[in-house]
Amino acid sequence: PSEMMTTPELIAQTNQSLLADHQHQLYHLQEILAKKQIDIEPVIQKLQAFQVSVPSWALGTGGTRFGRFPIGGEPRSIEEKIADTSLLHQLTGSNNAISLHIPWDTSLDYSAVRQFAHSRGIKFDAINSNTFQDHPQQVYSYKYGSLSHTKAEVRRQAIEHNCEVINIGQQLGSKALTTWLGDGANFPGQNNFRKAYERTAESLQEIYRYLPTHWQMLIEYKPYEPNFYSMVIPDWGTALLLAQQLGDQAQVLVDLGHHLPNTNIEQIIARLAGIGRLGGFHFNGSSYGDDDLTTGALKPYRLFLIFQELVNAMWSDAPTNASDIAWMIDASHNTKDPIEDLMQATEGILIEYAHALLIDQKMLEYMQEENEVVQAQEILQAAFRVDVRPLVAEARFRNKACIDPLTFFRAQRIRAALIEKRGVASRATGL
Ligand code: LRH
Ligand code: MN
Ligand code: MN
Fold this sequence. Notes:
single chain; six-stranded parallel β-sheet; globular; binds 6-deoxy-beta-L-fructofuranose; binds manganese (II) ion; metal-binding; metal ion binding; Sugar isomerase; manganese
């Protein structure tokens, strides 16, 4: 960014040059929607309030096991990851929190980290433990599992790690622990399914007992990888069972990439939201499995249907309140600038949220009650086919962020400035 002006000043100046065009488009859309009895004000306000957190590991370039193509200027410490999140948030107005992964993100002074984040307007969302890899200081290996391991000493180590992560999260002001296990089996016969589950439930019970009363424990499921025959927590049913055994503070976390192809994810969302057990969300795009591609790039209609279930749950007073859900982007890229990707993902999420907010829930319910199949479908499709981008841009503008963040990021040559500051070879820790 230019040395003459601060980023907020530059944003305001750039917005001025885009304002006439933007307002023209907004008024046009307002007129179209007014004819359908839709008031854009509450929609814009809900979009303004929606915040989706950034995973610390998405701020560096990802890769596959076949290769990595680092981009340079990547954040090298928690502070630099917070700085990137804060920059992103200035541009989008919708990313006010970071989600850390321990031990990818460690510090000798977490209270200083907390203060730094506070000074940059960034909060700490759910904090993630990691028992799917071996870390240099640990005594026992997780090669054959962690919380489900056959040996008590390995389970103990994994339990203690999770408690340590809670301790760190408390110092940072986090309010949820996310546990995702790589535990499972690659071959039939390797595991006793029943015992592996029981050991996992017992280990989680110990962690749950350590959980502060105002915290949540989010249990993330995944059908395959790193184990390809069986995962100990493969599906929402298993995660829900564990959550129910643990207690009210335990909830299910849905990662959009953790389903087998063609799974009706929106129905899973409706189930969990309907009983108040939907605690967290990892947004990403997927065509095969855990692809971690950009949210909304591949299946925007499915994302819209998912938001419709969330909006409907809130509208109908189902036990889940969206303000309690930990929203996070969980993506990782080999071929994009990570910050640009996060901007695209955030936009993709807000667009589908906006589409869902246009639905007349009462009318839809009426059509459902009357078995008006065609009309019910029409209501959904009519909402999805509206170009809501002016509403999303207006929400950003009112949040004092960019009308057009991606163009701003490029015009200000922000990546080049980061490379100059941190070096072309700087790499972020993470996946
Ligand atoms: C597992 C997962 C989980 C991890 C993250 C790095 O595939 O989605 O959320 O913590 O990736
Ligand atoms: Mn995830
Ligand atoms: Mn994943």
